[in-house]
Every structure is written in structure tokens, then in C-alpha cells.
Amino acid sequence: MAAAVGCCSAAVARGSGWQPRGRSGQRLPAGPQRAQASATRAATANTAEELVVATRASKPSTPEEEALAAQIQLHESWAAGARSSAGCSQWQGPELVQAYDRCGEVTSEYAKTFFLGTQLMTPEQAKAIWAIYVWCRRTDELVDGPNASRITPAALDRWENRLEALFEGRPYDALDAALTDTVARFPVHIQPFRDMIGGMRMDLVKSRYQTYDELYDYCYRVAGTVALMSVPVMGVDKAYKGPLEQVYRAALALGTANQLTNILRDVGEDASQRNRIYVPLDELAAFKIREEEVLNGTLFAASTGRIDDRWRAFMQFQIARARQTFADAEAGVNLLDAEARWPVWTALVLYRQILDAIEANDYNNFTQRAYVRKWRKLISLPEAFMRASMRPTAT
């Protein structure tokens, strides 16, 4: 919900005959190439404006692009101090205060570090972010929680109907009421919420991703959507007069980077406990890694404590792309409202360090879980504060 210093993926590809491909400048071995007209147009663009036009002209309509356009349109049309007519009349006064307090308690219980970050925001921002977090958590638990085995597409249909109702001012319970009040106070569009439910639908039926493009769509639905939900609450720096698209695209990159990091950290757990492989199968094949080797965890030899060299190279490539995606996000953080920058930078810096931890484990994400030690978290706070204190760059 919260972007990072990236490293050049050329270091991974050096001397191996690799070619450019896909989003964020990631590279693949020459075998799985795919020509992209957008890359050609972008390469011949002479100015930033031409690059934007070239990218837009070649970009197909996707759920991400449609939600981005809808969210920006709502944000731009939202007058200062506005409040939508979808506010809830049933939960008001003390009841609404209690609803927000409960959202804060849930956030504190399940996302302690994130909750601490919200303490650096204004009370209004923090409460709204709690309400969004709780809705996202409840949505995720439909397919990953204790009752996941009994969840059906029809159950997700009912959850989506409930979402529509709370946006119309008819919340089902107190936790819904907090979100109903949030979307009445801030220019938060419903489409990212719908798209997140779409990501849960994917988890019901899809356990493999053939290409990075497929995985990118999933990352948008389960993480990029959170960025679109959060930016309207965090707000944009008043000194920034450039296009909102720059802010939102940076946020989308951060959501993607966070989700890619989750996927790399949890490869072993997803494979052994859920029979899921989120890393792209065509990229596994490019590194001559078989699907069953990931599922069985045989890329790590317990007898020697060594990781297979193919997996090490594969993970180096994946981490390079995640870092580049963090770098893509970096430019937009300081365009946020000043009250939101420090917590977002803190989350960004800490999440990026998970990639460092995977490297420190010699890329063994089968039997070891990468995590950031408490002392590293503490010494990261000054770095985050310094970055948050930098003046935003207007374009």
C-alpha cells in the first residue's frame, strides 16, 4: 500500500545474449522473445511528451488502464472539502467512531508495522486507510482464509454486491460503514475494489501464470488496486501542478513491486502448501527449470545446503526486475501530500529490503523465509525521513 532504488537488470543479463522484453525493462533469454510495437515507439520518442503519447497509443485497454482513467477523472473533478451523497445515515456519531476504531484494531493486530506507519498520517488519513485495509484483508481472506475451501464464485458475487451497496450508502456492518464513510469523504472510485475481487476470482481457478504479462495483470488486481484506492486518501502535494497520472502510475508501480516481492519471498510456501506457482512458467523454461522442481523444492539440496545454479540465476533476474519496478515507483512518492510521505517511504524502504534478505539467504526461498530484522527496520527510519523531506519535482 505504500518504491525504491532499483538496479540495472543488465548486470544479470551481461554476456548471455539477452534481449529486452515486457514491462519495467525486464530482460529474457532470446528464446521467449515477443516483438512489442510500444517498445519501438517509445525507443524513437524524442521527448517525454512523445513518449507518453507513444505509450498511450500502443497500450491496449486493460482493467488497470480503465480503473486508472476512472480514478483520475473522479480525483480531478472532486472539489476541495467535497463529500459524496453516498454517506451512511445508519452509522453516525459514536457508532461511526467505534467502526473506525475497530478498523484500527484489526489493522494493528494483523499489520503492526503498517499500522505504525499510519500513525504518521493525519487522523483523517489514518482512519480512511484503516477502513480500506480492513476491506482488502476481508476480501483476501475469502480465498486465503480458514474458510477458503468453501468459497465459490457465487460467494464472490455476493461480496461484490455487498461492495456495490456500501458505495451506495447501504453498508452491511460496522466495518463496511467505515469504508462507506471513507468513500464519501475522499475521491475513491469503486472500480479498483471490483478489480481486486476479480483477482480473488483468479485465485479460485488459476494456479499458474504462463507469462509475465499474465502475472502483471494479477499483481495489478491484488496490489496495484490498493495503490489506486490509497492515493486519493493520502492526497497530492499542493505544490505539484503536473498530471495526476504521474502520481498514480508511480503508485501502481509500487503496488506491483510489493507484490512481486511477496511472490519471490513465498515461492516455497505457495508451491508446497497451495500448489501455486506465481513466477512465469515461460521464464522458468528459459532458465531450464521444470515446474515439478519448484513444486518439490528439489532446487534446494538439503544434504549440501546449496541452491541449484539455475535457480540462483533465475532469482537474480526476478529480483532485478522487482528492483527496477521499485525504481519506477520512486519518482512519485514525494508528489504525495507531505503528511503521507514518511510512512510511504518507510514501507517502501523496508519492503525493498526483503529482496536483500532473499539474496542473503543465497536465494533459498524454499526452506527459509526472508525477513527484515528489527535493527534494520530501525536504522531505515532516518533514510525514509530524509527521502520524504525532499521537495517534490513538478513536471
Automatic annotation (TrEMBL):
Segments of skewed composition (Low complexity): 33-44
Enzyme class: transferase
Record keyword Transferase present: yes
Keywords: Carotenoid biosynthesis, Transferase
Pfam families: SQS_PSY (PF00494)
CDD domains: Trans_IPPS_HH
UniProt region (Disordered), positions on chain: 14-44
InterPro entries given in the database record: Isoprenoid_synthase_dom_sf (IPR008949), Squ/phyt_synthse (IPR002060), Squalene/phytoene_synthase_CS (IPR019845), Trans_IPPS_bact-type (IPR044843), Trans_IPPS_HH (IPR033904)
Alphabetized GO MF terms: 15-cis-phytoene synthase activity; geranylgeranyl diphosphate synthase activity; squalene synthase [NAD(P)H] activity
GO cellular component terms attached to this protein's record: plastid
Keyword ATP-binding on entry: no
EC id: 2.5.1.32
One GO term (biological process): carotenoid biosynthetic process
Catalytic activity: 2 (2E,6E,10E)-geranylgeranyl diphosphate = 15-cis-phytoene + 2 diphosphate
PROSITE patterns: SQUALEN_PHYTOEN_SYN_2 (PS01045)
Family: Belongs to the phytoene/squalene synthase family.
Protein name: 15-cis-phytoene synthase
Organism: Chlorella sorokiniana
Taxonomic lineage: Eukaryota, Viridiplantae, Chlorophyta, core chlorophytes, Trebouxiophyceae
